[in-house]
Amino acid sequence: MPNDLPIRKIIHVDMDAFYASVEQMDNPELKGKPIAVGGSSKRGVVSAASYEARKFGVRSAMSGVKARRLCPELFFVRPRFDRYHDISKKIRKIFYDYTDLVEPLSLDEAYLDVTKNKKGNPSATLIAKEIRERIFKDVGLTASAGISINKFIAKVASDYNKPNGQKTVNPEEVLQFLEELDIRKFYGVGKVTAERMYQKGIFTGKDLKSKSLEYLDEHFGKSGRYYYYVVRGIHTSDVKPNRTRKSLAAERTFSENLSSEVFMLEKLDHIAEEVSRRLHKSTVAGKTVTLKIKYSDFTLQTRSKTLPYFISDKSIILETAKDLLYQEKLQNSVRLLGISLSNLNTEKKPKQTEPQKEVSVQLQFEF
């Protein structure tokens, strides 16, 4: 852990099976039963699964058909996003009682920087415990938390003692913690990347740490530098209370596969209207239009075009999406279409920073 970087006290709070837990809380008959929030139809997808359902292998983003096959007793519940938003607001209100440095990642998780906090409590561990107790008392749901010196380690730690638990990684424990960590637990290492790492003999943080920056750059591209530094406890990203939106999108999954562009254009019209509505609501515009196509065999393709000016008008978004649709022949029938706008007028150019060197840690820091 570098001693020329400021040691911060970061908490990552992650609600336990949030959508599913809300449904179980609101409907006591569902408590203790395997439930999935989402659709059970041929096209339905699981948005969230209760811990009872996860024991059968049911996971988010899984098709409803497969989930039902894994767990025949599974209860499907339609999502109620307005309800989830309302509860998320109550939880965030609790966060702000401790610090203004709150960075929400989604409705059910957030980073908090409590290095300096409103309670004057020097212990981030005790603050995390108190926050979790208040969420349970005031909202009725359980949360897990990770506490450490930066966002990366805090997020990894929050998954350790789920559900309804927490883990603190103290400054002097950081390097050993990362070396012993299974590579699949590294935030940012997905299933495909983990398989590639296995093939190269990288199974733990210690294995990853043994690889040079040049090696990781060569084999993992832009992500190589990220892996090189985080395994050394270096992650300088601040908790950003006002995260800059980088893209805005909308998509639709169809009840039947579409094979004709004529029918797709009708769908794109509705999607472009939704994207435009969200852009105007957020008072932003963008230059890069991306068309997302998911085929019936689940292969995914994206096509993008960058315009010389910012747009938010539906007609221009739609015309650009049409151009992208006709850009090349479709590979198969289509089950999903999406449109996103990026390169927004809210983005700022990142500052160039010099990489930090790994040196010994300062231990006189209460967590």
UniProtKB/TrEMBL annotation:
One of its GO terms (biological process) is DNA repair. GO terms for cellular component: cytosol. Binds 2 magnesium ions per subunit. Pfam families: IMS (PF00817), IMS_C (PF11799), IMS_HHH (PF11798). One of its GO terms (molecular function) is damaged DNA binding. It is an enzyme of class 2 (transferase). Its main location: cytoplasm. The record marks Y19 as: Substrate discrimination. The keyword Transferase applies. Poorly processive, error-prone DNA polymerase involved in untargeted mutagenesis. Copies undamaged DNA at stalled replication forks, which arise in vivo from mismatched or misaligned primer ends. These misaligned primers can be extended by PolIV. Exhibits no 3'-5' exonuclease (proofreading) activity. May be involved in translesional synthesis, in conjunction with the beta clamp from PolIII. PANTHER family: DNA POLYMERASE KAPPA, DNA REPAIR POLYMERASE UMUC / TRANSFERASE FAMILY MEMBER. This is DNA polymerase IV.
